[in-house]
Automatic annotation (TrEMBL), chain A:
Protein name: Hydroxymethylpyrimidine ABC transporter, ATPase component
Coiled coil: none
Organism per entry: Mycetocola reblochoni REB411
Gene3D superfamilies in UniProt: P-loop containing nucleotide triphosphate hydrolases
A GO MF term: ATP hydrolysis activity
Pfam hit, one: ABC_tran
Keyword Nucleotide-binding: yes
Top-rank taxon, per record: Bacteria
Keywords for the protein's UniProt record, in alphabetical order: ATP-binding, Nucleotide-binding, Transport
TrEMBL record, chain B:
Primary location: membrane
Listed transmembrane segments: 16-36, 77-96, 108-130, 136-155, 189-211, 231-253
GO cellular component term, pick one: plasma membrane
Gene3D superfamilies: MetI-like (1.10.3720.10)
Domain ABC transmembrane type-1: residue ranges: 70-250
Membrane topology: Multi-pass membrane protein
Keyword Cell wall biogenesis/degradation: no
Full protein name: ABC transporter permease
Biological classification of the source: Bacteria, Bacillati, Actinomycetota, Actinomycetes, Micrococcales
Amino acid sequence: MELRGLQKSYATRTGHVHALSAVDLSIRQGEFVAVVGPSGCGKTTMLKILAGLEEPTGGSASLGGHPVRTGSGDVGMVFQKATLLPWKDILANVLLPLSLRRRPTSADRTKAMDLLAMAGLAEFARKRPGELSGGMQQRAAICRALVHDPSLLLMDEPFGALDAMTRDTLNVEVNRIWRETGTTAVLITHSISEAVFLAERVIVMSPRPGRIVEEIIVPFDRERSLDLLGEPEFAALTSRIRSHFEVSHA
Amino acid sequence: MSTTTVSPPRRPSGRGVQITGGIALLVVLLLAWQFLPGLLNTPRYVIPPLTEVLAALVDPAALPRYLQNAAATMTEVGLGLLIGVALGLGLAVTLAQMPRVYGIVFPYIVAIESIPKVAVAPLFVIWFGFGLPSKVVVVVLLAFFPVLVNTIHGLRSVDRDQIDLFRVNGASPMQLRTRLLIPAALPQIFSGLELAVANAMIGAIVAEFVGAQHGLGVLILQAQGRMETPAVFALLIILSALGILLNLAVRLARRWVITWEPR
C-alpha cells in the first residue's frame, strides 16, 4: 500500500478546506498501522482514500502497484458505528460483503458462523441487530469486515462509542484476529494507548491540513495482552505521542 | 458471554385502566349525544339525537344507496392511491439518485405542494369531466406529494457509513437501491402512506362536492339539500369508518413489513 504526495481539498459552503497535505506513507503487507491525530486532521479522509471511496485531489494511492478503486473487494471496513442493517439478522449482516458479489454458499455460511463463534456471538446469529448490545454489534461488524478475507482491514475509530472495558476486550480480539488472518490493518483512533497497544507503527498527524509529523515504531511482540498497558515502555511511547498534541494546543 | 433479557417495565393494571377509561368516555359521549340536544332544546335538524342518526344509518331503504356510493368513493380513493403512491415512490427513488436534478426540481415540488390542492378540483372537472377520472386525478395529486416528500427524505437520510459500506463492497446502483436505500427508508415511506390515505379520502369527497354523479360526497350534498341532518351524520360515520379502516390497513402493513422497528 503506497500513498505518494497525497493531497485532498474540498470546496464547502464556507470556503475551501485543505484536508490533507502531501502525505507520503507506505504500508507493508500484513503490517498494522495506527493513525492518530486531532479531530479534523484528515484521518478519516485518508482512510476513505485508502478504501477507494474518495479520490485524492493530488498525489496517488496504490495497492500492490495498482491505483486504489472502489469495490475491488479486497477491503474490509469497520466504522465507528456498527452500521448493521436492522432488517437482517446477524448472520445475514456478516455475509453482506459476500452476498453483494454472489449468492453465499454453505461454505460462506460456515465461515461466517466461525467468525461469529470467534467473536462469542454464535448464539446470536439469528437475532436482529436491535437485540444486541453496542459492543456485540461492533463485534458483528468486525466479523462482517473479515468474512471475505480482505487483504486490507480499515478501521475508523471502531471502538470510539464503547465503554473502556469493552474496548480493552475488543482490542485484544483485534490483535488476535490480525495475527491469525495476516491481514494488513489500518486503524484510525483518538486513543493514543489504543494505537500503541495494537499497532506496529503509529502515524502521528498534525491538525488540518493533515500532514504526517512523526512515525513511531512500536517495538513490542506481535502478540499483545492487557498487561502491556502497565509497562513503563508503553507509558513512554504514549507520552511521547501525546507531547505532539500538547505542543499544538499551546 | 452472558446476556440478560430486559423486559419493559409494565404496570399490570395500566392497559386495563386505559381500555375501561376509553369505553367509559365513549358511553358518556354517546349518552350526551342522545340526550343533550333535547335538554338544550336544540332543533333536531341542527343536531339530531343519536338514535335518529343510527336509524338513518341502518335504514334498509337507504342501505343499497350507501353501499353503491361508498363503492364509488372507494374506487376513486383506491385508484387514486394506487397511481399516486406509485408515482410518488417512483419519482422519489429516481430523484434521490440524481442530486443535481433534485436541486433543480425541488423548488417546484415545494411550490406545488404549497398550493391547497383541493382548490384545483374545479379545474380538473373542466379538464376531465364529471365522471371518475376527475376524482381520481384529485386523489392522485393529494396522495402523491406526501409519499414523494417522505420517501425522498427517507432515502436521503440513509446513514452515510452504510452507503460507504455498500460501495466498498462493490454494490451496483441497483443493489444499493433495493438492498439499502429502500429498506432503510421504509419507516418514512409508511409515514408518507398514512398521510396519503388520509389525504385521499379528503380528495375524493371534495372532488365529489365539486361535481359528480356518484359517491358519498354526492349523498351528503343531497341529504343537505333535503335538510336530512340524520342522514348527513350517518354518512359522516360511514366516511370516518372507511377512513379508519384504511389507516388501520396501512398501520398493519407497516407492522408486517417493518418487523425490526421497536414498538
